[in-house]
Design goal:
Shape: globular
Number of domains: 1
Largest sheet: 18 strands, antiparallel, barrel
Radius of gyration: 22 Å
Helix content: 10-25%
CATH superfamily: Capsule assembly protein Wzi
Number of helices: 5
Number of strands: 26
Length: 495
């Protein structure tokens, strides 16, 4: 067990919790504030409801605030003329929202996940990061304060070391229409189901403090009301892992808005700053947006733009989306842009729940500017000369799971039956790294192509939820070689 880092993690979380508790004494406190990243069926249901107009179209900014979702689903009039599959989605979301926002009741859970080989591709629905992940969590909600304490262990697949696992511990406090939080919280910023370029749940969450809106209501001002429903969030974190540049800090800002029916636009910026032997002037450095060979800034930052459009075709819901991540100043000149494109359609099955079919393509071979396909900056997307650890935390990329200079094509089909059991089939074709990537790729030591087939079933039983997954892949990231088969099981028990 790595006792030193574990103690530092625990100490920092306790410091964050103490500061937040002092804040809680001076303002009225709330229930569990958000729906967290990682549940694909919950996300699919929310997108179905947004497409039907029952909810607004803020669906790419996870975690999502529960307050507006639960309030709007209490209005049965908005559902009375909807198809049966929309009403079924509303039932599942409302049931989960009510359970998570219940006050005055201690809730506890135990989660255990074991596999012989963790998956190389980690999407929104990702399971374990190691051979074994186990965690106990307890949470309690007051009227405006929510606390969760979690502790567990993770067994690393390569080194077999045991790591302390405080992930998703937090304290959240309502202040007006916003929530202040501190702890370690997972995020997923972007419309992709398989990948998010700048910030995803691929890496473990790190200690952070942040502020986010509690609802997505539009501005009342006539000058700003055109923006429509919107969400905003800012957090500041500490990359406290074993790094070359010790004590690197990390911040993220995202603004997501819904200006027209079906149209969702997201703008975000993430950056690494400070750290050993680096100037630490966060305010000055934050507003130094230019970064080109002639005007280099002192941070490692990424600017991301994404757009998602949803509508119906012959009564069938669909979505189209894209995301672009720029490493440098201008999208027109010297941007270093990575790209993601995708789409989903919810195909009806008789009178039951629809099948979600998703196709997605992600390319982290950065192009010189936003449209200069073929003019590449190899090894650029998650590497940085001033911060040689790059945009990574505890051995995994903070964004795209295949790291720099990689391409991933994925096709996925997911269906939920009348008993709320979910069945998912996925195919991945991955080109991981390139020979020109001299800066390196954290997933593989040399370039490799992998085809992977994945089958998963999710089985709910009252207070127990079981995920079973099998994977077959044609090759493995180097230094390993050859065909591999893996199985994984995760069980979560509510106590």
């Amino acid at each position: 067990m790595e006792a030193g880092p574990a103690r530092r993690v625990a100490a920092r979380i306790l410091q964050i919790a103490a500061i937040s508790l002092l804040t809680a004494m001076t303002v009225p406190a709330m229930a569990s504030p958000w729906a967290e990243a990682g549940d694909p069926q919950l996300r699919s249901d929310i997108e179905i409801l947004a497409n039907a107009g029952v909810l607004d179209n803020i669906t790419t900014h996870w975690p999502l605030p529960w307050r507006d979702i639960v309030a709007r689903l209490h209005d049965s009039d908005s559902l009375s003329h909807q198809p049966a599959f929309v009403r079924a989605a509303a039932r599942r979301v409302l049931s989960q929202g009510r359970a998570q926002t219940r006050t005055g009741q201690l809730r506890a859970s135990v989660t255990a996940d074991g596999t012989n080989l963790p998956s190389v591709v980690r999407g929104f629905d990702a399971l374990a990061r190691g051979d074994f992940d186990g965690q106990f969590a307890a949470e309690y909600n007051w009227e405006s304060t929510s606390i969760r304490l979690a502790a567990g262990a993770q067994v690393d697949h390569d080194t077999h070391k045991v790591h302390f696992l405080p992930d998703n511990s937090y304290i959240a406090q309502q202040v007006g229409g916003a929530v202040l939080y501190g702890g370690s919280l997972s995020h997923w910023w972007g419309p992709g189901w398989i990948s998010a370029l700048s910030l995803s749940n691929n890496a473990r969450p790190f200690p952070q403090v942040g502020i986010a809106r509690l609802d997505t209501k539009p501005f009342q001002s006539p000058w700003l009301s055109w923006i429509g429903p919107w969400q905003g969030e800012f957090f500041f974190g500490w990359l406290n892992d074993d790094r070359i540049i010790k004590d690197t800090m990390y911040d993220g800002l995202r603004f997501t808005f819904n200006p027209l029916p079906g149209l969702e636009i997201g703008l975000s910026r993430t950056q690494e700053l400070c750290g050993n032997h680096h100037r630490c002037d966060p305010i000055v450095d934050y507003f130094h947006f230019a970064n080109s060979p002639g005007d280099v800034n002192k941070t490692n930052d990424e600017g991301t733009f994404d757009i998602r459009y949803t509508n119906r075709l012959g009564g069938v819901p669909f979505e189209l989306y894209t995301q672009m991540m720029n490493e440098d100043s201008s999208p027109i000149n010297h941007s270093g842009t990575s790209h993601l494109f995708g789409g989903s359609i919810w195909v009806p099955l008789g009178g039951g729940n629809p099948v979600r079919l998703t196709v997605e393509y992600t390319d982290s071979i950065a192009t010189a500017d936003i449209f200069s396909f073929g003019d590449y900056f190899h090894g650029f997307s998650y590497n940085n000369g001033d911060y040689p650890d790059g945009m990574r935390y505890r051995g995994q990329t903070i964004g795209f799971s295949l790291d720099s200079d990689s391409r991933l094509f994925s096709a996925q089909a997911s269906w939920i039956d009348g008993g709320d059991r979910t069945y998912t089939l996925t195919f991945h074709h991955a080109d991981i790294s390139t020979a020109q990537n001299i800066a390196g790729n954290i997933v593989t030591t040399t370039p490799v192509k992998i085809n992977m087939g994945v089958a998963r079933v999710t089985l709910p039983f009252r207070s127990v939820k079981l995920d079973l997954e099998g994977r077959l892949q044609s090759d493995q990231p180097r230094p390993d070689h050859g065909f591999a088969a893996s199985i994984e099981a995760r069980v979560r028990v509510g106590l």
